[in-house]
Amino acid sequence: MNIVSWNVNGLRATVKKGALDWLISASPDVLCIQETKVGEDQLSENIRKPEGYVSHFFSSKIKKGYSGVAVYFNEKSKPEKMEYGIGIKKFDEQGRTLTLFYKNFVLVNVYVPNGGSPTADLNYKLEFYDKFLKYIEKLQKKHKNVIFCGDLNVAHEEIDIARPKENKTHIGFLPEERAWIDEVIEHGYIDSFRHFHSEKIGAYTYWDAKTMARDRNVGWRLDYFFVNNEFLKRVKKSEILNDVYGSDHCPILLEIKF
């Protein structure tokens, strides 16, 4: 089973750049997207129902053109049920999580707040981190195996950012943000990319578009697939698809087997 996660930074804009053609060509079983910036009712049918896929959206209720997550899956990867949000209004009204329940695992698609906006400042972000970890811990206790993926809006270690020294006081690389990833790992979750590529440098998933940073690979690794330790044996590979364009982020891939 192939699962892809991608912050599209505006679904309609990414579609115009060929995202649906890429989806049909790559044909992942499940595609989790973040930062859709659109309501489902604003989308044409070809975006809501691309060939071979069913989609579900969880969009921001407080501001148009903001936040939002969605999932696309093919018929053989249809979940048994879905859950929208984590049960906390001030987070759920921004459309930040979608959870898919399968027989052998639970898949959570999450878009963590950037932490630098009036609608989601740093305190909001840190509280979201805390509540989200509690949410996935509850899921694991009940369902045993949890995968969570998406834009976590933090580069964990210096190896995950092109210019660590220059960004030590910048949101996305603050000590308190990075400490949350440490806490996640202490709770028994594995950063799947680093499991397979522990020392790989220059491996980023986000580049600032305004400075054309992608051309120079001056990036950040903000997008992750985490799995609980017991599920790691089911993970075949975890990759960054940095040859796919259309957003200021690139997709990431997790391949699992049963």
Overall 3D geometry? globular
Derived from helix and strand composition plus strand pairing, the structural class reads: alpha+beta
The total domain count is 1
Number of strands: 16
Portion in beta strands = 25-35%
Give the strand line-up of the largest sheet. 3-4-2-1-16-15
Largest beta sheet, briefly? 6 strands, mixed
Helix and strand string, N-terminal first? EHHEHEEEHEEEEHEHEHEHEEEE
Question: What does this molecule look like?
Answer:
It is a single chain. The chain is α+β, with helices and mostly antiparallel strands. It has one domain (2-256): Endonuclease/exonuclease/phosphatase (Deoxyribonuclease I, Chain A, 4-Layer Sandwich). It contains 8 helices and 16 strands. The chain has helices at residues 11-16, 19-26, 45-48, 89-92, 122-143, 175-186, 192-196, 213-216; strands at residues 2-7, 30-34, 54-58, 69-73, 81-84, 97-101, 106-111, 116-117, 120-121, 146-151, 189-191, 206-207, 219-220, 223-228, 235-240, 252-256. A 6-stranded mixed sheet has the order 3-4-2-1-16-15. It has a 6-stranded mixed sheet with strand order 5-6-7-10-14-11. Helix 5 runs parallel beside helix 6 (175-186). The model has no long low-confidence stretch (mean pLDDT 97).
Task: Record keyword descriptors for this entry.
258 residues; alpha+beta; Deoxyribonuclease I, Chain A; six-stranded mixed β-sheet; 8 helices; globular
